[in-house]
Amino acid sequence: MAIDSALAPASPSAVDAEREPGEDSPQARMAAAKEASRETARLTSSDKVRALEAIAAAIEADAAEIIAANSRDLDRGRSQGIGDALLDRLRLDEKRVATLASAVRDVAVLPDPVGQVVGGHRMPNGVALEQVRVPFGVVGVIYEARPNVTVDIAALALRSGNAVVLRGGSAAKESNTVLVRIMREALDGIGISPEAIQSVDDFGRDGAKALMHGRGFIDVLVPRGSASLIETVVTESTVPVIETGAGNVHIVLDESAPEDWAREIVVNAKVQRPSVCNAVETVLVLRPAAERLVPSVVDALQQSGVTVHGDDVVSGLASSVVPATEEDWATEYLSLDIAMKVVDSLDEALAHIRTYSTGHTESIITTDSRNAERFLAEVDSAVVMANASTRFTDGSEFGFGAEVGISTQKLHTRGPMGLSELTSTKWLARGAGQTRA
Amino acid sequence: MAIDSALAPASPSAVDAEREPGEDSPQARMAAAKEASRETARLTSSDKVRALEAIAAAIEADAAEIIAANSRDLDRGRSQGIGDALLDRLRLDEKRVATLASAVRDVAVLPDPVGQVVGGHRMPNGVALEQVRVPFGVVGVIYEARPNVTVDIAALALRSGNAVVLRGGSAAKESNTVLVRIMREALDGIGISPEAIQSVDDFGRDGAKALMHGRGFIDVLVPRGSASLIETVVTESTVPVIETGAGNVHIVLDESAPEDWAREIVVNAKVQRPSVCNAVETVLVLRPAAERLVPSVVDALQQSGVTVHGDDVVSGLASSVVPATEEDWATEYLSLDIAMKVVDSLDEALAHIRTYSTGHTESIITTDSRNAERFLAEVDSAVVMANASTRFTDGSEFGFGAEVGISTQKLHTRGPMGLSELTSTKWLARGAGQTRA
């Protein structure tokens, strides 16, 4: 839906071909970011706070210009028939610009992960080993038409000592151009290289492809957006990718599930913010609890405006249930829709989750500790819960103060990503002439 | 050099095409490994020790069969004109088979990383969060004609609760077939699914391609071998890869470098085991130290049988120096050859390293603490040393007890990888009906 046509497959020749040195190109901008990343890696924590303060102040000062550019994006979007939900994500008004600036200040006060010593010991021969957090270098981000991501990610990358190369959705192009220019000028104004923030939006499809093939320039690439954007980036990239986001999230109602917990948690997980990845999409009800729980939970959902897509048993126990098809089990609705199925056993629930889950978050509602612990142990997802709303899978809720995204892969980081997850480590070894025997 | 022709580009159609269920295929074996990984993830530490003991005992019991299969590989290799160095890596004799078995027992006694609690706290609303180590699931490995890797990696993967899919070099095919069968039978004999250990060697090129495109089956893919094997795997894979190995390793001799440290460390780093990734390949000498150090260090290297490829200044200060070309600075010799260059400043040394290093290990020899700390801070490699031999970049030397490889990427892990690096984490959340406000 929000997939940018710029990510559609194209001939790589335009990207991979050698370019003249000095020519402006995605490669030249990635190289400039790489060069600047040597400086950002060495900035002190105070320098980085100063940089973020300057960016926040510049965003506030230039609010009118940002809103004007955003209006042009909105006008173009309307004339191209973009839907209301996407227009709303694209929109920046005075209040939202103020929120952008305050989000930057929120990042500025987070503890700096760079330089943190995460391990170390002396080798038997006396060499002192120390493992310290260091910035990745250059973080690439490919995302959709949400201009707030432009600022959020730049702030998070800078706070953790990284340079950043941005590729936003073309529908937000005018907004992003102004935001990137403002942030670069803010850095320049306090003596930090503006090359630490780059955008390749104006290269269209070539910009995205250059990021995905930017070996030697891009240390890690984070796609943020819909499942198909992420799939494209993961499949096509030759640089390391952190897969984020898609959440086909399940809640299991065990035989012992208290009715109040079942109603409250399912409704909260679906309704509190249906458009995000940690919202529940499918409820699996153990058969012995079906008669007791299905009518009550369906009623609570319907009272909140949710359309329930149920199997035959659910349809038999509650009214106004839309018959579910195979497709419903695999769908991340991101809307006021939910799928509901009655299963014979916890085994069947676990098998259903193995088949359809995207490995984001699943929760079981139960007072049977054996079933709770089995669920926690066997479900292979980033976050596995007992008796809590899936909406808690979130960087702020987890106490990270900010969120880069939710990793659904197993490499590097899994679950909500904070600032530390935008760093790597390196080993330092200090010796006095030691050689290996 | 040791690149397997099976990794050369080929049409993906044979791999990506759908296959009939039940048909034996790389996909069927990867699916069997995925299924078995649910069991290996739940094995207790004692179960895993028992499994490794059974494998070690079986290798010892079937030594004659292993050596016979290996002889057939060696005969075929000789008739195909494989060089002596590769034949030596391929060879398994009685002593080496005994070493294989004892290496498995060494892995068995390592602490089990699975279940380790690496973090956690209570959310303000009382939900208890816990971050625990879990196995990746299925580890894929693509490697060259070294049958010891077959056993080492299977043991490390099992100890950390993973299933493994192996794709070894075709020159070791007979040896690997026997080793995999013996390990599978050993698991079966103690009631653990043999499907936890799979090989796709017999599918040739399709086996490697299936691993690289095994999304949903392969949780992480580790290439072990030459730079071009690694490059192929990193570029072609759509599954997460941990890039290991290639080491164009530098030592910088600062103006203040003591002559004895310079001689001893450079000779140790080059000569102690020249064929491995942590051996030094280029020495950069600061100009003010050139007259003092170049003749002495070149002499020490030549006495150890090393051919020195030097720039004009080095050639002017020492005899029998082969003129270095641009190519020498980029070469990972893995032999008794070394490149040597005189640079004007530490800045020039750092710039040279930025251009040519593979980000594995670099060391500076200096007594000037300012230069040492600048080098440690600015060199962007997995391991950065002052006054120690680069040969220390090694899992055993770092105290990990075993080594999966040396990661030269920044994602997930960097530097020597131990057992913990073969695990991911997941978050467990235990609540009592909490919903998000």
Portion in helices of chain A: 40-55%
Low-confidence stretches of chain A: 1-19
Strand content of chain A: 15-25%
Question: Strands of the largest sheet of chain A, in order across it?
Answer: 10-9-11-8-7-12-13
Can you give the mean pLDDT of chain A? Answer: 92
Q: Summarize the largest interface: chains and residue counts.
A: A-B, 68 and 69 residues
* Total DSSP helices of chain A: 16
So what's the oligomer here? homodimer
Q: What is the name of the CATH architecture of the largest domain in chain A?
A: 3-Layer(aba) Sandwich
Q: Strand count, sense and closure of the main sheet of chain A?
A: 7 strands, parallel
The CATH homologous superfamily of the largest domain in chain A is termed: Aldehyde Dehydrogenase, Chain A, domain 1
Quickly count the domains of chain A: 2
Structural class of chain A: alpha/beta
From the alpha carbons, calculate the radius of gyration of chain A and give it in angstroms. 24 Å
Within the CATH hierarchy, at the fold level, what is the topology of the largest domain in chain A? Aldehyde Dehydrogenase, Chain A, domain 1
Can you tell me the CATH class of the largest domain in chain A?
Answer: Alpha Beta
Separation, N- and C-terminal Cα atoms of chain A: 61 Å
Shape of chain A: globular
**What is the number of beta strands of chain A?**
16
Keywords (chains A, B): Amino-acid biosynthesis, Cytoplasm, NADP, Oxidoreductase, Proline biosynthesis
InterPro entries (chains A, B): Ald_DH/histidinol_DH (IPR016161), Ald_DH_C (IPR016163), Ald_DH_N (IPR016162), Aldehyde_DH_dom (IPR015590), G-glutamylP_reductase_CS (IPR020593), Glu-5-SA_DH (IPR012134), GPR_dom (IPR000965)
Catalytic activity (chains A, B): L-glutamate 5-semialdehyde + phosphate + NADP(+) = L-glutamyl 5-phosphate + NADPH + H(+)
Main location (chains A, B): cytoplasm
